[in-house]
Amino acid sequence: MELARIPNLKFAEGSNFFLLSGPCAIEGEDMALRIAERIVAVTDKLKIPYVFKGSFKKANRSRVDSFTGIGDEKALKILRKVSETFSVPTVTDIHEASDAELAAEYVDVLQIPAFLVRQTDLVVAAAQTGKTVNLKKGQFMSPESMQHAVRKVTDSGNEQVMITDRGTMFGYQDMIVDFRGVPTMKQYAPVVLDVTHSLQQPNQASGVTGGRPALIATMARAGIATGVDGLFMETHFDPANAKSDGANMLHLDLLEPLLADLVKLRKTINEIDS
């Protein structure tokens, strides 16, 4: 995959990690623009290639009364406005093959959720749009098995593919990241670490997913130290009242100091590896 082929991606030729970040879900235009403005300012300052993330709908909810979105086209138009306002690419996740063509009209990267990464029709539909495809590693899959998901994209004529690790199920209510998988998956495609979802605590009795956000910095540093190409972090200015995944999101005020530390760490790792 060539980062430079993602439209509007700044600093793609540098040696920094790239970042996929934003709210879990698009809750409205004002919140999306507010979050994007803060992240763009930080990533421009630190010269981090940046893709704004926001789900246009949430299909994999624990309860039927969970927030699923504000309307597909309404949310997708907000993603387009973020891209046009700040000249940054955008990524959103899709859940059905029919979502691929729809979302591709508005965003630059299509993300396949971890639960659905073995769904051939979905992966192929995303690949055939010509957009960059981000494959979330299934919580039930080995790093080695992700080569087959990648091949579904490349066999569809699309070389723009990356893998995002978001942990492996450890019991019923916890996730564990096995960093041995990073060099394995880098043989197949660039590897991203989903820092915040790796700290989820799903399947709570309440039906509301928990999390351990206090460990976000620890997880992100471990990812950079083990050589991931990019980081995925969900962030919000009010995680406690976010409509989706608030329990494991990073508070927006904490993003800049964390990224500044990670840039320093990446520089050190680059020097060690050179």
TrEMBL record:
Top enzyme class, one word, equals: transferase
Enzyme Commission no: 2.5.1.55
Q: Where are the transmembrane segments?
A: none
Q: An example Gene Ontology cellular component term from the record?
A: cytoplasm
Q: Name the Gene3D superfamilies on file.
A: Aldolase class I (3.20.20.70)
Q: Its domain of life?
A: Bacteria
Catalysed reaction(s) here are: D-arabinose 5-phosphate + phosphoenolpyruvate + H2O = 3-deoxy-alpha-D-manno-2-octulosonate-8-phosphate + phosphate
Q: Which Pfam family, any one, appears in the UniProt record?
A: DAHP_synth_1
Its annotated compartments are: Cytoplasm
The annotated pathway is: Carbohydrate biosynthesis; 3-deoxy-D-manno-octulosonate biosynthesis; 3-deoxy-D-manno-octulosonate from D-ribulose 5-phosphate: step 2/3; Bacterial outer membrane biogenesis; lipopolysaccharide biosynthesis
Domain (DAHP synthetase I/KDSA): give its ranges: 13-268
The yes or no answer to whether the keyword Transferase is present is yes
Q: Which family does it belong to?
A: Belongs to the KdsA family.
The record's NCBIfam families line, in alphabetical order, gives: KDO8P_synth, PRK05198.1
What is the name attached to this protein's record? 3-deoxy-8-phosphooctulonate synthase
Q: Can you name the source organism?
A: Lentiprolixibacter aurantiacus
The encoding gene is kdsA
